[in-house]
Amino acid sequence: MKIAIASDHRGYTLKTYLINELKNKYEILDLGTESTESVDFPIYGIKLGESIKNKEADLGIAICGTGIGISIAANKVKGIMCAKINNVEEARLAKQHNNANVIALSGSKEPQEALNMIQAFLDEKPNQEEKYQRRINQILSYEDER
Q1: pTM
Q2: In this predicted model, what pLDDT tens digit does every residue of 36-92 receive, in sequence order?
Q3: Is 9 labeled as catalytic in the residue annotation?
Q4: How confident is the model at residue 10, as a pLDDT?
Q5: How far apart are CA 86 and CA 91, in angstroms?
Q6: What is the bridge-based pairing of β-strands 102-106 and 82-84?
Q7: What DSSP assignment string belongs to 41-102?
Q8: Which pLDDT does position 146 carry in this prediction?
Q9: Reduced to 3 states, what is the DSSP secondary structure of residue 36?
Q10: Which of 92, 97, 115, 116 is catalytic?
Q11: Residues 46, 64, 70, 117: which is the catalytic one?
C-alpha cells in the first residue's frame, strides 16, 4: 500500500515522525512541506488530494495546525473523501462508514496517539452494508453533477 502524506509548517514535525514510523511497513509518498518555515496549507492539501485522484497513492494523511484547513483543501479535489479525525474511533469510522481515502489531523496531536489513529484507519475495511454505500453514492453523485 502506498500512502501519501502532506503537511503545512505546523504539521511538519508530526509528519516527519509518522514517516519514520510508517516507512518500514508502507511505501510513503512525502508531498511536503520540508521545514517548519511558514507555508500555506491549501497548497499541500490540494497536492495530496491530486496524488490520490491520479492514483499516485492509495490513501492519504494530511496534517496542519488543526487538521481542519488542510482537510477542506483536500476535499476540493474530485473523488477525495477526507475526514478530519480526533481519535482512534473516528479513524475507524472514517473508513468503515464513509470509505474515506484521506484523513486529516492536528499537528499538535501527541505522536504515538496520532500513529494509533493512522494505524486504525489503515487497518479498517469499508462497511459493505447497503446504507453506507448508498450514502457515499449520494455524495459522489452530487460531486459528479458539478
Answers
A1: 0.96
A2: 999 999 999 999 999 999 999 999 999 999 999 999 999 999 999 999 999 999 999
A3: no
A4: 98
A5: 8
A6: parallel
A7: HHHHHHHHHHHHHTTS-SEEEEEESSSHHHHHHHHTSTT--EEE--SHHHHHHHHHTT--SE
A8: 76
A9: coil
A10: 97
A11: 64
Q: Which three cell numbers stand for residue 146?
A: 458539478
Query: How many domains is the chain partitioned into structurally?
Result: 1
Cβ(48)–Cβ(31) below 8 Å: yes
Question: Cell digits for 11?
Answer: 504539521
pLDDT-derived band of residue 96, with 50, 70 and 90 as boundaries?
Answer: very high
Q: Which domain holds residue 36?
A: 2-145
- Residue 53 dihedral angles phi and psi, to the nearest 5°: -55, -40
Distance, in Å, from the CA atom of 91 to the CA atom of 83, rounded to the nearest integer, reads: 8
CA 15 – CA 33 distance, rounded (Å): 9
Check if 64 is active-site.
yes
Q: What is the CATH number of the domain that holds 41?
A: 3.40.1400.10
